[in-house]
Amino acid sequence: MKKNIQPIIIFFIIAIFISSPIILNKTPVLGVDGYFHYGRIYEAAMQIKHANFSILNLYSFQQSGRVVNALYSPFLTYLLGILLLISGSWLRFQVVLNILVLFIAGISTYYVSKRVHLSEKVSIALGIIYLTSNAVASFLIVTGWRSIGLAFLPLMILPIFDMLQGNLKLKNSLILALAVSLQVQGHLLSAAFAIPVLIAPFIIGFIQTHNKWLMVRYLIMAIITSIILCLNSILPYLQLSKHNILVPPTKIDVTNAIFNPFNVFTNNDIPFFGNRVSFTDNILAILVILGITIVILYWKNVSNLSKVLTLSGFTYFFLGSNLLPWPTIQHHVPVILNFLQFSFRFTVLGDAFVLIGAPLAVNELIKNLPDTFKRTTELLLVMLSITSVINLAVSVSDNVISNYRKTTTIAQSAAINPKDLRLNPMDGHPVNTTTDLRAAWSNRDLSQLINTVDRTTPDYLPITKINNNEDYYGLYTEHVLEKHSSFNKDVRSHGILHISWIQNKTHRIEVPAFIYKNTSAYLNGKKLNATHISKTPIGTINLNGIKGKNSLTLQYKASNIFNLMIIVSDLSWLILICYFIFMNMLVRSDKKLSQSIS
Questions:
Q1: Which of 14, 23, 33 lies closest to 271 in space, CA to CA?
Q2: Can you name the residues that pair with 521 across neighbouring β-strands?
C-alpha cells in the first residue's frame, strides 16, 4: 500500500510546486488558446448550473447562436464545467486544473512504466519528465487543449503491450477502447495521428498468436466500445458538417513553426516556452537517438515492445522535424495548411513513446550486467527529472512575472494580435492590461472575465461558401465583436436564446447571430427558413426588422435518436469507469484473501 501512495504524493507535490508561481503571486497564465477554451468551459458550467442544455452556446461566444462545445471535447468540457463551479473562481480553477493535468500525465506514465516492468525509481522519474514535456506542459503556458488528451497518451502503450503479449481478455479490450477514446475526447486531430501506432503491434500480435479469432474478436469489441464512447464527439460534427458549410480552421504555413527535435542545440522558436529549448526537449532528443541506436545495433536483444515504442517515437519525431520536405508537401497537399497547421503536432505525440521505449531498451540491454549499471541509470534519470521540474517551474514563473507587470497588455499576455481582441469596461473602468483584469480572476461572478474579454474565434461558423482568400478573423471582428453589444440577449428555458433590439423605422438590419440548418429561428413570432436567409461572408444574418422592438429566438432542435445516442454515449463513460473501479476492488480483495489464507 505504501508503494502505491508514494508516487501519488510525489507527483502531487511536484504538480503543486510547478504551479506555485501562480498560487503565490495570485497571477494567472493564459496563452493564445486560453480565452477560447475558457469560454467553452464557462458555457458548460452555466448549462449545468441552470439545467438548461443545448447544442447552441447559450451563455458564451457573444451569445450569437453559435455551436462550439458540441464540436470540441463535449464530455470533457462538461466535466471541467463542474470543476469550475466547484472552484468558484477562475484563478482557483486554473490552479486546480493545472495540477490535475500534470498529475494525470505523471501518474499515467508511472503506471504504464511499472506495467512494462521498469523499476519504481525509473518509473517515477519518467513520469516526472513526461509531465514537464512540451506535450503536457504547454497547457500551463498557452492552455493548449491537446495537452489534456496527451496527459493520458501513455495509456495507449497498455494495449500495445497487451497485443504483443497476447493478453486478449475483455478487460484488455476495454482498456484499448478507453485509451483511444480518451484521445478522441481530448483532441480529435491528435487522436487521428496517434491511433496508427496500434497497427504494427496488432499485426505482430496477430502473426504470433495461435488464437487469431480471439485477436479479431478483441479488436472488434474494442472498436465497438470506442465508437459508443466517442459518439458524443462524432455525431454532432457529422450532423453539422453534413448539413452546413463550416468555416475551415485557420490556414497556417507549416514551415513557419517547424521545431527540429533531433537538434538538441537548436535555437528554434518553440511556441510553448519562448525562443529557447526546454531541458526536457534535450532529454527526449537524446533518448530517441539512444533508443534507435540500441534497437539497430542490438535488434535481437530487445523486446518487440521496445522496438515498437522506440520506432514509433522516432517516426513521430521525424514527421515533426524539418527532415521532412514540408514546403513540397504543403505545396502539393495544401489542405494541411488548414488542418495540420503545426508540425510539432507530430513531435508531441512521440514524447510518451520515446520516454518509455528508450529506457525500456536500455533496461533490457543491461539486465544481465552488474547492479551498478542499473543504479547509475536510475541516478541519471532522477537527476534529469529534477532538472526538468526546475526548468518548467522557472518557465511558469517567467510568465507569471510578465503578467504581474502593470505594463503588460492582455494582448501581449495571451500572444494575441490586438486587432483580434476587444476589451469591455469592467465595473465602469477601462481594461487594457493584465493588472486591470486581475480582479475578474478572483471574482465569484464567473461571467465577468468572459464578458470583459471578447476574442475573435470564427471556428465552426455556418457560411454560404468557403473563400480561401477571405480573412475570417477580420470578418468576425467586424460583424460580431463590434456589433453584438448593440443587441440585448437573454437565455430562456429549453435551450432558447432570445435576442432583441429597437429600430426607429422598418429597414433591413444585420444581426450578429448565426443560424444552422437545425436551428429553429423566429423573428417577431414568425418562423424563418434557414435556407432562404441572407448571410454575410462570415455567416451573420440579414433580417427585415420592423419599427419599434424586434425579437429573434434561436433554438437548436436535434432528432430524438440523436439526443438518445448522445445520452447513451455519456452514460457509457460512467458505466466503463464504474466497471474498472469494481474490477480493481475485486482484484484487491482477492489479493487480501490469498494473503490471509497463506
A1: 33
A2: 554
